[in-house]
Amino acid sequence: MRGIACPEHDDREMVDLLFFPTGGGKTEAYLGLAAFTMVLRRLRNAGIHSAGVTVLMRYTLRLLTLDQLGRAAALVCALEKERASNPKLGEWPFEIGLWVGSAATPNIMGFKGYKGAGAQVTARKKTIDFKSDDKKPAPIPIVECPWCGTKFTRDSFFLMADGKGNPDFPKDLVVKCVNPDCEYSGDKQLPVLGVDEPIYRRLPAFLIVRFASMGRENGSTLRARRALRSGRILRTSRFKGR
Ligand SMILES: [Zn+2]
Asked: How far is the CA of 180 from the centre of ligand 1 (A)?
């Protein structure tokens, strides 16, 4: 934590590997540090300037489990609930992006009549297919609300553009909980981005990135590294894209 808080700290020079038995709290320690980092960045830079990708969580395909996604998403839900009632944490929502490849999450939103690359797996098509037959795969790889645990249904997903329902030309796949008592139901959407296009536009604070194998960077991770390094420019574009 000292290394996170202080850019000059000696810990910045160190990369360490954490060995611990299953159930020992590795993920909790990691998520705790992630939360500390995200909140500190908001507190230190008021306003939109502290928005942008803050934490990259990298996973191999084998280790990317629903449980891991759900726990990280629950943390972001908690941060966002806190931010919504605390102006010190900034005006831009805390969000989690699932940037885990087209097999798990759609790369593009798609639109009515779209016949280009990936036309069968656009977010629009996957959402419409799931809404008409919920035995088909859901458009994102999380099956239940990360905040209250209610299972997602065909009524949990909305194709939207500029805050309105727009199934023909959507810009966002909005996810809401169907439990009316949940924090993230009704007017309030879950802070979860499951499609690449909105991820590039909104630059979520917490980004889960899948990589193919240890020691090999894939293109998306390299792009993400660049995005982090040039945070100032990206935050500006994010602001415009809002
Ligand atoms: Zn819920």
From this structure: 8
Tallying the residues shown for the chain, one arrives at 242
160 phi, psi to nearest 5 deg: -130, 160
Whether the predicted pLDDT of 190 surpasses 90: yes
In percent, how much of the chain has pLDDT > 90?
A: 61
Could you give the CA distance from residue 96 to residue 223 in angstroms, rounded to a whole number?
Answer: 17
Q: How many other β-carbons are positioned within 10 Å of the β-carbon of residue 63? A: 9
Phi-psi region of 52 (alpha: psi -120 to 50; beta: other; left: phi over 0): left
Burial (0-12, 13-18, 19+ Cβ within 10 Å), 216? exposed
Q: Residue 4 belongs to what H/E stretch? A: helix 2-5
Q: Cα–Cα distance between 213 and 79 in angstroms, integer?
A: 31
Q: How far is the CA of 70 from the centre of ligand 1 (A)?
A: 12
Q: Could you tell me the pTM of the whole model?
A: 0.84
The whole-angstrom separation of Cα 135 and Cα 131 is 9
Q: Residue 213: its pLDDT value, please?
A: 46
Half-sphere exposure of 136 toward its Cβ, with a 13 Å CA cutoff? 12
**38: CA distance to ligand 1 center in Å?**
23
Crossing angle of helices 66-84 and 26-44, in 10° steps, is: 30
Instruction: Transcribe 95-162 into DSSP letters.
Output: -EEEE--TTTS-S----TT--STTGGG-HHHHHHHHHH-TTSPPSSS--B-TTT-PBP-GGGEEEEET
Q: Distance from the CA of 81 to the center of ligand 1, in angstroms? A: 13
Which three-class secondary structure state does DSSP give residue 55? strand
pLDDT at residue 221 in the model: 58
**CA 148–ligand 1 middle distance (angstroms):** 4
